[in-house]
Structure formats: structure tokens, C-alpha cells
Amino acid sequence: MARKANNSFFLEEWLRTVSGSSVSGDLVKQNSAPSARSIIQAWSEIRESLQNQNFDSRYLQALRALVSSESTIHVADPQAKLLISILAFQDVSLPSESYTLVLRLLYVWIRKAFRPSQALVGVAVQAIRGVVDDRRNLQPALVAQSVLVSGAFACVPSLSGDVKVLCLELLCRLLEEEYSLVGSQEELVPVVLAGIGYALSSSLDVHYVRLLDLLFGIWLKDEGPRGTVTYGLMILHLIEWVVSGYMRSNSINKMSLFANEVLETSKEKYAVFAVFMAAAGVVRASTAGFSSGAQSFEISKLRNSAEKRIEFVAQILVSNGNVVTLPTTQREGPLLKCFAIALARCGSVSSSAPLLLCLTSALLTQVFPLGQIYESFCNAFGKEPIGPRLIWVREHLSDVLFKESGAISGAFCNQYSSASEENKYIVENMIWDFCQNLYLQHRQIAMLLCGIEDTLLGDIEKIAESSFLMVVVFALAVTKQWLKPIVSKERKMETSVKILVSFSCVEYFRHIRLPEYMETIREVISCVQENDAPCVSFVESIPAYDSLTNPKDLFTQRIKYEWSRDDVQTSRILFYLRVIPTCIGRLSASAFRGVVASTMFLYIGHPNRKVARASHTLLAAFLSSAKESEEDERTQFKEQLVFYYMQRSLEVYPEITPFEGLASGVATLVQHLPAGSPAIFYSVHSLVEKASTFSTESLQGRKSDPGNQILELLLRLVSLVDIQVLPYLMKSLAQLVIKLPKERQNVVLGELYGQVAESDDVIRKPSLVSWLQSLNYLCSNNRTEVLASGSTIDTSNQLAARL
Predict the structure, then answer these.
(1) Which residue, 10, 292, 301, 444, is the most exposed by fewest CB within 10 angstroms?
(2) Which pLDDT tens digit goes with each residue over 54-113?
(3) Within 624-723, where are the H helices?
(4) Which DSSP symbol is given to 96?
């Protein structure tokens, strides 16, 4: 960015851009493509006004036209002389705006001129002094442009030292006497900062310390500008630009003086935030890499001084504000914001505990101020208008601090990776606690605002979604630190469980597939699968059943709570439903019974089919799992589960229960329960009973019809159930088929014949062939008798006899 600034004509415009300032500093609306004729006409109007000493509206309009084209026009020395002549007029009253416009054009001249006339610059300085000495002319914009032009004059290498001294004296006097005018308008601050930056880049050392005092002290004056993140960024990049110039020109004396006055000496008259951002600017400039030898040594010394100053400010925050305990005070907030954005912009900085703790606090309270947002809304809900809070959230979304949350998170992870073990542990717990609070607080906000203030809720969730990305990136950094062979098993297991629990808390905000997320999940699950203890620890972190269905939080007293509408909670439970199957073999039957089963059965009845399907998958995983140390107990519990599973699933089928989930669960239970288990008989009975509740139209309709799906599942079981259950299934299925219309009977028989023909089960096949022949006979006989008598006959006795 320093390189771009040097190639730019106007430093103040670059400062606005890199700081993300939304305030335009244009004196008039910019015209990017002026015609040559309009430019010539404008100069002609100004020349005519000067000759006639008649400065009317045409003259003012001409000045505006030229300034609006400042990015494309070139002001030559003769034209500059014309402008200086206007400033030098003493006997004619000029429109107040015209002075500011003339100064702006002189600034365009000096910034674009290859070798401006030294005499002309001297005359210009005297003319400007004459204008500002007349206090009737003093306006904020005029003062700011005077500072800018004076600084730009002092920066020109070809000018004599005497002229530069005049410029520097004028600039310093204006700022010392008229700083209140500058601080009154936000759009003028980058103009003034650019003027100081030009002056600091002058080849002279005269007034250098005086300039530094102005740059770093103006923020503490009562009527001066207030320190903000935007101004902090302007200072950072201004110092980057200035120091980069020192490094290129080998100005060792300037570098040493800057380090001594700003970085190595604490001055009460200097604003802490400004010094801190300046130190970050030095670090950023030093990363570009310039010469070697003595210059390289001086640059290294300057960088070390800057890093020490950054750490010193961090230490002050840690000791005075105790940033480890959240939330922070209003006094610390702005400095923490500067801390976050500065470390993101300045690149790699030597790791230290204060830096890491400050950056963590900045992330959790300033970049993602969700705790403050939630507390504010919960306290004000139903009592105060939402409008001001909506504006607050919207402004944060557009703030440069939030927009650079990704870069800040990256700087945070870099600091964490180099920290001591103790500090890593502290920071990890701060992040995990943040995730827990995010889950608890967003549940409340989502339930309170959903359907009422959806726009506001959506904006809050944008901040929360960005914090999710930070958590994922950090969790990956944590796995790289602790999930290594040299780390103790206990530490690896503890870390893995905490990451999984934290991910469950932020699952609601996961809307995209992140490689970092998938890599982290694979690493921690692999660790959890190695031992029973972490698996049980993770499972026991599931919210209790009572808290899922009847939470005791204060917010539930304000609304009618329905567990199935709590989307934040549902997302968290869905995470558990998906992760537990990966380590189900490590989970004892008693743990599954005590913690998992009730929640699983609750969410089998969730109206979101994705959630219900995950519950079916979890049951299937448990039914197919084995644990040698408790084989009998596990089998007995599986059979108990199946009875309630069939009841719970079929009572909400097809409205809620997804057929794919039900089919998976049934197929698993018939394959993994002991042969002849009563639970299998009960499952077959329940399916036949459910199928019989559907109309014959449903049983013979499309394959996607609910009744037809149950029938298809029963047909599939013919080749899955054990030989002890098969006779009961054949009898029950025959009773169902015999009631079907002819066309559907033919289809069913055809499917059964196909299954039997393809089967190579020598034990099952003879029974199936015999049964199919009998079923075919009964279907044919039943149709013949119905056609002959015109009435339906009872085939149950025939069926029993044949089967």
C-alpha cells in the first residue's frame, strides 16, 4: 500500500481509501471525464475575472469546474501564477469558498508539477499567509487546505531550505492555533493528516518534533478531533508512507528521531491509540524490505522499537483493564478495536502474552460484539423501539473492523501458535466459553425476533456467521498444536471434546462447506474414537431432555415455547445426532440409555425431515454396534429400544417420519437383533398393521405413496428376516396381499417371484417357493369366486390351511 501511495497524486485520497472511510472529502462533485473545451473555458473565465476584478458567479463556477476535474487536469506554472494573483488581491472582496478552491488547485499544481518554480512557490506561501492572517476568511475547509498545500510545498525536493521552513512554520502555526476548526468536520481530518505527512517527509529536520507533537497530541485537545478506528487506520498508513520514504531515501537521522520521540519515549501529551497505530505503521513499512548494511540495521532497530511499543500498550491494557475477563469497559473498547485492525494490517509481529490476550478480547468484544448486542436486545425487548439497535447492528456490519474480521482472525491464530502453553489454554477456554454463550444467547434472540424483526435478526446472524468462521479457523490451529503424537493422551482427548462441544454450539451458523471445518472434524473424531472416556464425555454434554422441551430461561416466560421451533437448539442436537454414530462402539448401553435415547426419540418426531432422518440413522448405528464387555446387556437394551422405536416412528408416519429413515432402521434391526427376537416379530406386526390402515388406492398407487412404501418395505424384509421370523412375515404379508386389487396383486407377486428367482439362499428358498405358489393360488381363487358370486369371501381359513 505504501508503494501505491507514492504513485498517487493525492495522499489524503489514499488515506480515505485504505481506512475504509465512508465520508467524502470532495470540495465539489468529481467529474472524471471533463472535455478539453470546458477546461479551457474555465481558465478563460478565471483570467477574465482577474483582469476585470469582477469575481462573480461565473468565476466561482469556473473554479468548481476545475476542482471537479482535479484527477485529470494539469495545472502549469502560468496557471499557478494566475491563481496566486487571486490570493494576493487585498482590495477586492472574494467569495469565501473561492479561497479554498484556489488552494485546492495550487495543491493539484504542486503535486503534479515535475519541477515547480521556486520563486513561484515562495510567492504562493506569502499569499496563503496573507489569506489566513485575515481571520474573516478562516473557515474549517480553508484551514485544512492551507495545511495540505503547505505540507505539499515542504515535501518538494527541489525547493530551497528557506522556502520549506516558511511552509513548515505556516503549517505548524495553523494547527496550533486553529485545531478546533479542523476537529469540527470529519471529512477534513484526512486532509490535515496528509498535510502533516507531507511535512514529515520534508528533507529538513526543522520543526520535526513540533510536527510529531501536533500529529499525536491533537487527539487529546478538548476541541480537537476524536480518536476512532478510521482515524487510527489513517495514522497507521500515513506513518507507513512516511517511514517507507525514509527507508528509500536512507534518512537514518529521521528514523532515529522518530523512534526516540514516538516509540521509545512515553509522553502524556501523545494519544495512546495514535502512538500505537503509528508503531503498527512502522512494522508494516519495515516488512517491505529495503537495503542492506547500515540501513538494514537501522530499519531493524526501528522495527524492534515499534514492536516493543505495541507490546507496551498491550501490557497496559492487560494490567489496567484485565482484558481476560469480559466484557471490557468503554474506555478500553476503542483501543482494542485499533489493536485488532492494526495487527491484521501490519503483518507478522513477535508473539507475546499481552498481545495474544488483547487480540482475543478484541475479537470477542469488538469485532464480534454479540454479547453486548444480545444483552441490549433482551433487556429492551418489548420496552423500547428496535430502530436504534437496528442502526447500531447495520453500522457494525459496514464497519472496516468487521469487514476485516478474517484478517484479524488470521493474526490471532498466528499469535496463538507461538504462545506459551499456559496462555494457549487461557485463550482456548475464552473461545470455548464464547461459543457456549453464543448458543445460549442466540437461542433467545432467535425465538424473540423470529417473525417479528426478521431483518434485524438476519443482520445479527451475519455477525454470528462470521464469528463461526473465526471459531473454525482457530479450532484448526488448536488441533495442529495438541493433536500430535508427542502430546499426552489426556490433553488430546480434552481438546477434542471441547472442540466438538464448541462446534455443536455454533452449528446453526454453518452454511457453507469449509475445508478447515472438515479437516478439524476428522482430526478430533479420530481422537475421540480411540478411547471410551472422550466419547462418553462428549455425549454427556448433550443438553438435558428437560431443558430441550421445557427450558427454564427467562425468555421462555415472554413467549409460547415450542421445542420443534427452536432452530438454534435443533441445529445443535443435529450435530450430536451426526457425530455420535462415528464413535458409537465406544458408548456403553447405560450411557446411551441415560443420555442419548430420550433425545433421539424426541427428534425422531421433529418436523424437519433432515433432523428426523439423522435420528433414525443414530438408532441404526447403535443397533449395528457391538461392545464385547457388555454384549448381553447391550442386546437386551437394543430389543427394548426397538419396541418404542416402531411405535414412535409409525405414529407420525408419513407426516413426519421419513420413509428412508424408517426403512434404514427396520433393515438394521432385523439384521442385528438375535434370531427370533420378539422385537423383530413386533416390528413386522407393526408394519403390517400400519399398512392395513391405508386405503387400497394408496397400496396400489405410485411407489412414493406412503402405504405403497410400507408394502415395499415388507416385501424387502422377505429376504432379510431370519428363518424363525420368516413364517410369520409370510403369513402376515399374505393376509395383506390377498386384499389388494388384481392389478396390484400381480405387481406384488411379480416382485416376489423376482426376489425368489434371484435368491441363492438354499435354506430360505424352498419355503418361499411353496409360499408363493399358495399365495398365487389364493389370489387367483379369490378373484374367481368374487366374480362368480359378486361378493367377497373370507379367505383367512383358506390362507391358514394353505400356509
Answers:
(1) 292
(2) 787 888 899 999 998 888 888 999 999 999 998 888 667 777 788 899 999 999 999 998
(3) 631-651, 659-672, 678-692, 696-700, 706-717
(4) H
